[in-house]
């Protein structure tokens, strides 16, 4: 188990009472502002001493109040990347990176400087100072500095929150490489569903200081009721796909998933690229029969696995499409009029323009 957290902590009127475990490569702590996300990462990193509880990272006990154990933050080997890069303005990028080395004894240093520079694509920045860097370049440098301390865990507290969409698009692929290639587990704080859908392998959902759900990202993101504070429209399915071909005359790309083929707006990824695709529940319609004469390019056959029990106007219908789990959010009236029930065969209809481009992220299929 990579991470085991069971803590209780009071800060004024706010009470955090959080319990979860994760063995994911990138665990996202998700929830609205004030839900306790930053308090948890500060407890893991040693910036907050919880009133009671236990924190274990990769088998090492960092906090155990019952045994009076509290490992100082400088001995935890936990990397921390803040919302702002917090680089030293008077040092070059190279010098900022090498500063991370000071926190690890020489005989314990395993991480290659050149390897980190290559991983994050910052070789051309080494001689520059932070004031000349873009927001994305600053964050990549901050990540590199944290990695060069040879951490057993990397904490990232909303590292993309201060970036505009262009800078986010710039840094997403580097965090994906970090997740898939660096071999350092990550805990990412975020309140963006699109962000965690693209990056997370595991998700912990928080609300008012409590954990309301935790588990694999593909499972957690399928349940609308977990995202009520953020808007029901955020829920959806994550599926793995691969670029099958490009339909250049129509500016489209065809993806191959277990559920079938999916046609999306033209992507820049080469044929064969493995991708993670997010299909939002609100963008899926259901039909009892394979439709004909429709403009929608994506029609996937599937079987209803369950229907949410709810008194709301809309409900989630969970589908099994060739081993890929999808979810469609439809009205209860539609469920009644179509006679939808578990075990029934249906067709899921998805418009190609409904695909969330921010979550079409590349993945390395050789790593979990």
TrEMBL record:
Residues 293-359 form the Mop domain. InterPro entries: AAA+_ATPase, ABC_transporter-like_ATP-bd, Mo/tungstate-bd_C_term_dom, ModC_ABC_ATP-bd, Molybdenum_import_ModC, Mop_domain, P-loop_NTPase, Transp-assoc_OB_typ1. Keywords: ATP-binding, Cell inner membrane, Cell membrane, Membrane, Molybdenum, Nucleotide-binding, Translocase, Transport. SUPFAM superfamilies: MOP-like, P-loop containing nucleoside triphosphate hydrolases. Residues 2-233 form the ABC transporter domain. It comes from the Bacteria. It holds the Pfam family ABC_tran. GO terms for molecular function: ATP binding. The keyword GTP-binding does not apply. This is Molybdenum ABC transporter ATP-binding protein. It comes from Microvirga terrae.
């Amino acid at each position: 188990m990579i991470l085991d957290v069971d803590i209780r902590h009071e800060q004024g009127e706010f009470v955090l009472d959080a319990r979860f475990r994760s063995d994911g490569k990138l665990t996202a702590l998700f929830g609205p502002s004030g839900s306790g996300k930053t308090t948890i990462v500060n407890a893991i990193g040693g910036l907050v001493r919880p009133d009671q509880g236990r924190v274990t990272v990769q088998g090492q006990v960092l906090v155990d109040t019952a045994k009076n154990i509290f490992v100082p933050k400088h001995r935890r080997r936990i990397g921390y990347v803040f919302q702002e890069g917090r680089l030293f303005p008077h040092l070059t990028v190279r010098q900022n990176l090498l500063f991370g080395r000071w926190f690890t004894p020489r005989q314990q240093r395993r991480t290659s400087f050149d390897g980190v520079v290559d991983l994050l694509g910052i070789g051309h920045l080494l001689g520059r100072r932070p004031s000349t860097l873009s927001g994305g370049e600053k964050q990549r440098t901050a990540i590199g500095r944290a990695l060069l301390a040879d951490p057993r865990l990397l904490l990232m507290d909303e590292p993309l929150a201060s970036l505009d969409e262009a800078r986010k698009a710039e840094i997403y692929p580097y965090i994906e490489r970090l997740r898939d290639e660096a071999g350092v587990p990550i805990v990412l704080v975020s309140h963006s569903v699109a962000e965690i859908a693209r990056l997370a392998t595991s998700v912990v959902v928080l609300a008012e200081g409590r954990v309301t759900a935790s588990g694999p990202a593909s499972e957690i993101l399928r349940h609308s009721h977990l995202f009520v504070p953020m808007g029901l429209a955020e829920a959806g399915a994550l599926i793995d796909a691969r670029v099958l071909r490009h339909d250049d005359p129509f500016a489209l790309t065809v993806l191959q998933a277990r559920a079938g083929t999916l046609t999306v707006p033209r992507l820049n990824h080469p044929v064969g690229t493995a991708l993670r695709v997010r299909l939002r529940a609100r963008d899926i319609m259901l039909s009892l029969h394979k439709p004909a004469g429709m403009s929608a390019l994506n029609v996937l056959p599937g079987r209803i696995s369950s229907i949410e029990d709810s008194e709301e106007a809309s409900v989630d219908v969970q589908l099994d499409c060739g081993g890929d789990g999808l979810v469609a959010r439809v009205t209860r009236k539609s469920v009644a009029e179509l006679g939808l029930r578990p075990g029934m065969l249906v067709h899921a209809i998805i418009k190609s323009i409904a695909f969330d481009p921010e979550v079409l992220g590349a993945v390395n299929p050789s790593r979990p």
